[in-house]
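Extended Data, panel c. Modelled sequence:
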Amino acid sequence: MKNKYLIIYEDLVEKIHQEEYPVHSILPSENDLTDLYSTSRETIRKALNLLAQNGYIQKIRGKGSIVLDLKKLQFPISGLVSFKELTGTMGQQAETIVAEFSLKKPDSNIMKQLQIEKDDKVWKVHRIRKIEGEKIILDKDYIIESQIPGLTEEICKRSIFEYIEKMLGRKIGFAKKEFTVEEPTAEDYKLLDMEGFHAIVVVKNYIYLDDAALFQYTESRHRPDKFRFVDFARRMGNA
């Protein structure tokens, strides 16, 4: 049975999408939400924390929880979410174009990133992400074939995470992420709609299964105007 805070979170997300709580409006107070959902304040706080973590609200002391503009895709830094899941919650027109799909032996850089040997085989998947008709993300995925067998171009177009979890029955555990801002490459300008942009946000992801086995290295290259990376952090203890 789903936890109550998740049910409340999903209901609030739906109300934000339906503009029952418009952009820049303030959500009802914790006390009011406690009464509305007939639950505890701790449950409401968990739901609000999840909203903040996923970029729906900003909690401001003395004011409450302000609804954020969802026109930008909200990438949760500390979470693991697929492009399909992300765009599904945003209600925006999205398309994935598989620019390259192959199974090959890794070069020295990929060997280092995935901690594998030269005889190991790696799926090389380059995907262009279109949002509202604009090509604004280039995802360059390198996946260990022995860990994730049976990939196809059609699976890559839909969702690799979905294939891993639903078809292979594996569980994705966690990821390490590195963020940099760099000059766009010739490939970026060729594959993405980069006219007028002179920087690109690069997110390197090292993704592990729940048994702590590294199976995927991804370099995700984002046009900077469309994306906002969000996180929820809590200070522990007292200074």
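The CA atoms of residues 53 and 231 lie 5 Å apart. This feature is highlighted in the accompanying rendering.
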